[in-house]
Model the fold of this input.
Amino acid sequence: MASPIDPSHSTPTNEPPVQVSDDAQGYYVPGEPLVDPRTPTGPIKDRWTTRKFENRLVNPANRRKLSIIIVGTGLAGGAAAATLGEAGYNVKSFCYQDSPRRAHSIAAQGGINAAKNYKEDGDSTHRLFYDTVKGGDYRSRESNVYRLAEVSANIIDQCVAQGVPFAREYGGLLDNRSFGGVQVSRTFYARGQTGQQLLIGAYQAMERQVAAGTVTEYTRHEMLELIVADGRARGIIARNMVTGEIETHLADVVVLASGGYGNVFYLSTNAMGSNVTATWRAHRKGAYFANPCYTQIHPTCIPVSGSHQSKLTLMSESLRNDGRIWVPKKKADCDKDPRQIPEQDRDYYLERIYPSFGNLVPRDIASRGAKNVCDEGRGVGPEVDGVRRGVYLDFADSIARLGEDAVREKYGNLFDMYKQITGENPYEVPMRIYPAVHYTMGGLWVDYDLQSSIPGLFVTGEANFSDHGANRLGASALMQGLADGYFVLPNTIREYLADGPFDALDESHPAVAEAKKSVEDRVQHFLSTNGTRSVDSYHRELGNIMWEYCGMERTEDGLKKAIDLIRGLREDFWRNVKVLGTADSLNQSLEKAGRVADFFELGELMCIDALNRRESCGGHFRAESQTEDGEALRHDDQFAYVAAWEFGGDGAQPVLHKEDLVYTAIEMKQRSYK
Amino acid sequence: MKVTLKIWRQPDAASPGAMHTYEVDKVSEDMSFLEMLDVLNEQLNAQGEDPVAFDSDCREGICGMCGLMINGQAHGPEVTTTCQLHMRSFKDGDEIVVEPWRSDAFPVLKDLVVDRGALDRIIQAGGFISVNTGSAPEAHSVPVPRDDAVRAFSAAACIGCGACVAACPNGSASLFLGAKITHLGELPQGQPERHSRVVDMVAQHDHEGFGGCTNIGECTAACPKEIPLDVISQLNRDLRTALVHGR
Done:
């Protein structure tokens, strides 16, 4: 229900947090408190309008003299490249794929939220704002979230004008569905391929600017270092992945729209190439990394089938509307044909534990439930490394009640996809599902204007941290990517660019030479190590550590153990990795080696962040912080802050800066799904 | 199961290539085709031989990055992307021939990796609706008949993988081109540029060295997204109308 608090209210509703516990003592250095220098003031509904007016304009003639580097071509990067190109800036766009259209935003299935209230069901900007802050378990910044809700309606207008073929009703108007457990229908969709259609829209807008000459695209280019000269981000070092050339690209400002870091777990629903290198290199150059431990684990993915597994595939969680989740009561039944297991020997554990929400409990609760029954040895499906990790999602009751045709009508494409991957027919045999890493809410710290702690470095989309708190609601990732790219960044970056163009930088500047040399040294190191283990084998082992100790449930002991394991493995990696091929050619092992090297450092920081945060919130569950019933227990009095980590140097401890979260337009509450 | 792979190896665009034979043992039928190649690459790496380069990214059939000729068929024996093809489609002892996309317009960069930049340049020539950010009217101001929206969506489902080109004996990209013409041409928002779009995109298609369409239909048979052949009819119809109007 909407907060009774007046949205124009401007005094805090919460006390500043005071942390009592210090689990991560000895792993970090306490730093100065952090305050967003660009935080807006005044009534929440006017903050964005005021900021757009306050931010200086750049004269159209001057825009031609200003250059912008954008790394990543997903919704956040592609939309920004198109929009800034249209405005007349010189944009250089980079992606590691062979075309901007491949970015992983393309894989989003469900839809995009927008507060259009087309269904007249009581939706509003304020309600979308409220749902998003609540869904994020009160760990996001309220001003940023309000702005996101505010611009959401413009996104739909823009996409429709571009020709995005959203689902429509017979009258020709746009259809909506409800998604992710909210009580209004505000999700716009294009069958199960909403991400694809939105990305193609942004891609086409960007290609139009390529033709117009305002955007230059650099495909098969991977950013490997950030150039910070005289206190400002001024460019990147990128590797041409075809020729191997290490290239220097300079500009007045740099935007990172390089996505999330779920692949630190090796297996995730991310694309094979998704990586943290762009943001991690920026972190090492001074950009704070915020809330790295906030990871979203999605409950309905197709389970791992063997040690060869390279990635996991998500299936829309709408399946939980009609499927019933269960495992056998007895371990002895786990390898039997599920159809032969009688009703009284099945444990519908979500229905048993959460009688009112049953199979529709939120993502983190459903995920943890599956992990617990598998840990007890009651998982189903193939044994991988000695454990069966899967639970049944059974449609037999729905098929009996509604008929197979009705079920096919609703879920046909998902059932087909399942059959394609597993070889099993879910109309006859229960599906098997298991949770998988899906999205990372943490990312580089940014101020309200999306600028990081390095002047001139802006961060958008999943790569930043600000909008989803500790947990992201369904259909909100697409909304945030496009909000940042089309509407927010273009209106905030101009305040920075109004001071430009900055002094021309030469490739001989020490900062440029240093960045380039460090990249060349790293490449040389990997190719000359000549060890015995492949990059993938290290990545897989790192992923196992992260999943075991920094996955769905985290403990103090487990996290400390993980940190030791990661440090040991990383050391071995640098001494013993085997990368064949040459530096001056297309070399996929070399590409992966650089990414995995950065995942090691990130993984350690994630564990330290998770260790420090001795509370359970959103996607972060600390076993030490639960209610008597085993539910997540937040500690607003201690942890209502953003943990922004500053790089302390190689081998040195990271520095923790805390940004207190202040709520004026909303009151914090504990959630309950019993 | 055990399979024998004959794989095209080519160090770079300038060097000649050749087929190499490899054996992969202990292949599980639950592996995807690309996971089987991952296993081969681990094997090669251990032996000190350069792993086989191939493209893939999302590995869930939507990004369009993967694409191999498998036993002479684009994306192999099933109607799906290479990443969604699983080893249960093969049997123990099979010999599998793996080549890159075959087309002059897609030069080989290394092994099984090709350059599909030509498809981006076709989109740059006109595969968009010219609307700047912020200038869009309210989304409900223009209703779109549901059937038109559905047809636009079906064409927009193209993932730009290039299988249509690889499958076509003429090396034509007409299915790719027709899909975009149909997607944008079915919608009211796409009408103002309908004529110039088709003329410009076709000109770019021809300029890139893609062949002409002679209605063979291999493209639609190979298309993992089952884009229908009639998008090419729409392409031709729109082109004729545009030319009659002197564009």
Q: What stands out?
A: Residues 117-244 of chain B form a domain with the Fumarate Reductase Iron-sulfur Protein; Chain B, domain 2 fold (CATH 1.10.1060.10). The two ends of chain B are 58 Å apart (CA to CA). The first strand of chain B starts at residue 3 and ends at 9. Chain B has a mean pLDDT of 97.
